[in-house]
Amino acid sequence: MTAAAIEVAGLVKTYGETTAVAGVDFSIAPGSVAGLLGGNGAGKTTTIGMIMGLIAPSAGVARVLGADMASRRYDVLHRMNFQSPYVDMPHRLTVRQNLDVFARLYGVADVAGRIARLREELQLGEFLDRPSGKLSAGQKTRVALAKALINEPDVLLLDEPTASLDPDTADWARARLESWRRERGATILLASHNMAEVERLCDRVIMMKQGRVVDDDSPAALLARYGRADLEDVFLDIARGRAGGAP
Amino acid sequence: MSAPAARFSPARVAAMVRRYVYLLRSSWPRLLELIYWPAVQLLTWGFLQNFITQSAQADGFAAGKVGLAAGAFIGAMLLWEILFRGQLGFSISFLEEMWSRNMGNLLMSPLRPAEFVLALMTMSVLRLTIGLVPVTGLAWLLFGYDFWSLGFAIPLFFANLIGTSWAVGLVVSGLILRNGMGAESIAWTLLFLMMPLACVYYPVAVLPLWLRPFAWALPPTYVFEGLRAAAFDGALRLDLMAWAAALNVAYFIVATMIFLRLLQSARRAGSLVQMGE
Q1: Does B2 contact A78 at a Cβ distance shorter than 8 Å?
Q2: N or C: less crowded end of chain A, CB within 10 Å?
Q3: CB A102 to CB B109 under 8 A?
């Protein structure tokens, strides 16, 4: 049996009286793409924070590539990476300088060669030597993706990877993620509010509500179970408590 | 494919130093600021020193303590700048990551806290060197004060002051990690709490008796007393330097423990994924 790339067991996070995550269990097989969906306050960001090891669980365990992220995250961080619209890269550094620094932090053997390959793959050429703060939203997304792929990660955590992008750039970003997964066999966990994105990229969808997993299946199986034509309606059914599906 | 993360990697420390050097090179106001404030301080204290010395001489006190005490102003000011700018150099490099919203990227990378802290220490020394070396030249040119004539005392003074500045920088960084940017002002003000007790410009003997133990609990107090011993008596007080070093080691250990506790607390509170105000 293949060990899970990401495994979450009995995960709980409480802040005083407030329960953000109330006992979550799931595991994600290597090479698969899973979407973590839920409304605001459903517990997605807290769950991903615990998987990244940035938030200490109140109970339970989050393991990535077999390492408990609360105590042994440094064993696997060089094999992971992440992208989020809520973090940025130093604005005054050029794209090349930023990628250079991150390549060295991740211990990439051939820094110049890796940046050259990313330049080709992600079409960074025209702005590689421009300060990162002077890029358009679309260009910033490419750079964030380049940073996320700099160490050729086995596990990629993506929080709203195409938030605030125009449809063309968002489509481009999804295509890059698809090809990365195909070429590398990487495992991707994706938190998103964009149902079309989830439907396109994910083999599996984990639905969260009020800190719990309320459904977990392939997009096709969820559509069939809820009798809906698209995931957005499934999302609304779950968010509004219409568990049986159609109103 | 990246290499497995070693327990401690000088290459990751060097990568972070490279990041800050890129930043300094990209921004001339940042470079200028390193020299600007120490130069302004030098001019203020230098002219005050001239005024007091000239007044003392006019009153016939040239050989007295007034003239000598005033003569130590520039030296004391330069040493205070090592302490203050050393801590700022540490804290500003840390704050750069908060201001640019880059902390999440760093915390999710294989960079370990010890490596990050070592890079911040390196930057505090580098920023100090850029800022203070030209100002010591200016002190000699404008006021005839030769800082480098202190000789072997300089590395001892420097090591003890920078040690204290790192300990304070560590605690400040931990507080910002735990409490977010709302705690930023601490980075600019905390050290000034120490200033009256560290006896930068006057001897410990002028403090009330009950306050002196608090002054002697601070490593910089020994350095400033050491400076006055060098200026007044031409003596290098190794006993004072040894006391300062011992206190610094103790404070640095305590500061490291506080930093790690605050980091742990930030993980529990979820502050590391919500790094705003």
Answers
A1: yes
A2: N
A3: yes
Which residues of chain B lie closer than 8 angstroms to A89, CB-CB?
100, 102, 105
Element of type H or E holding A238: helix A231-239
pLDDT category at B68 given cuts 50, 70, 90 is: low
Say if B27 falls within a structural domain.
yes
Q: Look at residue B21 and tell me if it is in a domain.
A: yes
Domain of residue B183 covers 10-273
DSSP 3-state assignment of A34? strand
Considering only CB atoms, which chain A residues are within 8 Å of B100?
88-91
Q: Which residues of B touch A55 (CB under 8 A)?
A: 267-268, 270, 272-273
Instruction: Provide ipTM, 2 decimals.
Output: 0.89
Which residues on chain A are in Cβ contact (under 8 Å) with B111? 105
CATH number at residue A206: 3.40.50.300
What is the pairing mode between strands A67-68 and A59-64? Answer: antiparallel
- Per-residue pLDDT tens digits for B130-184: 999 999 999 999 988 888 988 899 999 999 999 999 999 999 999 998 988 888 8
Is position B4 within any domain?
no
In a domain, A214, yes or no: yes
- Model pLDDT for residues A123-168, shown as the tens digit of each residue: 898 999 999 999 988 888 889 999 999 999 999 999 888 876 778 8
From B96's Cα to the closest Cα of chain A, the distance in A is 8
Under 8 Å between Cβ of B255 and B237: no
Cβ-defined contact of A105 to B100 (cutoff 8 Å): no
Disruptive mutation site among B2, B92, B96, B97 for chain A (greatest number of A CBs within 10 Å): B2
pLDDT of A247 over the 50 cut:
no
Nearest CA to A83 among B105, B273, B1, B16? B105
Cα dist from B251 to A193, B124, B128, whole Å: 48, 18, 21
Q: Count CB pairs under 8 A between chains A and B.
A: 118
